[in-house]
Amino acid sequence: xxxxxxxxxxxxxxxxxxxxxxxxxxxxxxxxxxxxxxxxxxxxxxxxxxxxxxxxxxxxxxxxxxxxxxxxxxxxxxxxxxxxxxxxxxxxxxxxxxxxxxxxxxxxxxxxxxxxxxxxxxxxxxxxxxxxxxxxxxxxxxxxxxxxxxxxxxxxxxxxxxxxxxxxxxxxxxxxxxxxxxxxxxxxxxxxxxxxxxxxxxxxxxxxxxxxxxxxxxxxxxxxxxxxxxxxxxxxxxxxxxxxxxxxxxxxxxxxxxxxxxxxxxxxxxxxxxxxxxxxxxxxxxxxxxxxxxxxxxxxxxxxxxxxxxxxxxxxxxxxxxxxxxxxxxxxxxxxxxxxxxxxxxxxxxxxxxxxxxxxxxxxxxxxxxxxxxxxxxxxxxxxxxxxxxxxxxxxxxxxxxxxxxxxxxxxxxxxxxxxxxxxxxxx
Length: 428
Ligand SMILES: Cc1cc2nc3c(=O)[nH]c(=O)nc-3n(C[C@H](O)[C@H](O)[C@H](O)COP(=O)(O)O)c2cc1C
Hints:
Elements: E1 8-13, H1 36-48, E2 53-56, H2 75-84, E3 90-96, H3 102-116, E4 120-125, H4 130-133, H5 144-162, E5 170-173, E6 177-179, E7 189-190, E8 195-196, E9 211-214, H6 219-228, E10 231-234, H7 239-255, E11 264-273, H8 277-288, H9 293-304, H10 330-343, H11 347-355, E12 361-365, H12 367-379, E13 385-388, H13 395-410, H14 423-427
Parallel strand pairs: 1-2, 1-13, 2-3, 3-4, 4-9, 9-10, 10-11, 11-12, 11-13
Antiparallel strand pairs: 5-6, 7-8
The chain binds flavin mononucleotide.
């Protein structure tokens, strides 16, 4: 299988940063979360680093009103403003197929693609929380199989709506022909979940179809990605887990009859960058020290199904039972075992690692050592790039753009200039 020759990098924007205590840091911009200039500046920084895109996750419920310390603007609204403050960077947002309708999503994303001149991307997710479902008229989140069946039909309908206007359909001849009727058509979709006549109310956008990303790790999620995604946001704590996911999903893409090399797999990546390893570690320790300890230990107790309240914070994590003996949910527990095996953290360090990105790859070190690790994942078949998750915004993004990107560029692993004006062009 041919591999891409260049890394792909997105900046995953999230409140004050991906560390849950980031908002308490003196450099956080917690007062500015409703100020669009904050997001515009982050997008401009990412564009200065020639990143592929800025990326927003999304959610439809407030999980911890008193403790989370972070909220975010509705992503498409924010990206529309950010489009006007930038010229090249891609603008990717998460849109749930469980809570939107395909017509609504296709219309908004096509509009963003028009406004940005071809830079819109859609991260397809099926959502996960009952609290979100209860904001949308459901009693609870529908079962996974049902969500993915709806997601598949949703994507098909959105693609059909985007194709309901052919290229060149708008004639705009003032002599009397506005659009060529042979190039605009209804889609007449009548399926299990949706009935949509079409055509879309928005004519064909610059990219034709905004770029599809996908995030969702189950077999059904991977198959959806294999059939439709042009890039994938994945989760892997270490290169071994990354390579196993990568090999599996690339095989599924090939089995779906598509070119596996053309679909970029981008795990989340949390970085702590210092001019020395000690400085990088101190940055993590500074954020970890801001965590509410009792609450974090209670949460850890739920993940490992034992009482951790008496665990000594600055001692190594006590021996944990192997996965075969663990009766609770495996996903998060397996991640904790991997973190302990790879990093041998103290209890406090483990709480901090879980508080920033959960189970996502975490690299701590100098710009050179982090560039080495990124290169090793890339060349080792574990990633085609990364969805960057700085623990603290804006500092973490500045550090990456100013210190890590130039090393990747010097090694020929990352673009020095944009060669395209569209998101799809960047991902080629
Ligand atoms: C890396 C990753 C990122 C995700 N981001 C979001 C998100 O921003 N919003 C959302 O509602 N769901 C998100 N999801 C959840 C998926 O939509 C999906 O509902 C959930 O993971 C369960 O499906 P799965 O078992 O296929 O992973 C994400 C999942 C993964 C693995």
